[in-house]
Amino acid sequence: MGFGVTALLLAVMVGTSLLSGIFGMAGGLVLVGVLLVLMPLPDAMALHAVTQVASNGWRGAFMLSHVRWRIVAGFSVGCLLAMAAWSLFRWVPDKPIALIALGLSPFLLKLLPAGLRPDSERPSHAAACAVGSMSLMLLTGVSGPLLDAFFLGGTMNRLAIIGTKAICQVLGHTLKLVYFGAVVADPGSVPLPLAMGAILASMAGTVLARRLLEAMTEAQFRRWAGRIVTTIAAFYIAQGGWLLLFP
User: Fold this and answer.
1) CA–CA separation, 13 vs 16, rounded Å?
2) What global pTM score does this model have?
């Protein structure tokens, strides 16, 4: 990867980390789309995992007092179950399938009847969501739309959503790094200098986002977060459909 492409990639990482730092979502979705264009899928997934562990870990550290640990515990159980199950198959999907599955996930959650929609305040629901989101993460690289819709559907305030989701994402992306770096038949790899640059870029974006998050109201957060998730999900469906029709 040339210097210009690397510099552009690091700038995208700062921007996507800034976006995630404000809304607790969407940044990883944008980043994985860029990585899938520039790199083979296993390498893209491994690098994406490195950046997301750094970004979410730093964000979680800032929001530690707002984290709902019962939700994290339930989510962890679901992640480990999904990881164990998918490790038996070790399947990596083609890019079009990955993108379409990624884009469809939030819309499928919205189609559930009101009585079946998950409650982000219940650990058992968090475990069930984790099975789906971890499966999606291992197949597409991210679980953002599904996990975002899950957290936005509850009554937690924006600080609790961002902090709790960040800790959950640290676990999910750590398992993804293990999966794509060691478990799959054709594991990906990330050069150490690029990994270090990605970590620093992700941390920088997270730090820059703090003041913007504090200035935002609860209503603004929910309104814009919902719009961003829907827009990005629709874009990925369109991108995946295009690649499927015109490979």
Assistant:
1) 5
2) 0.71
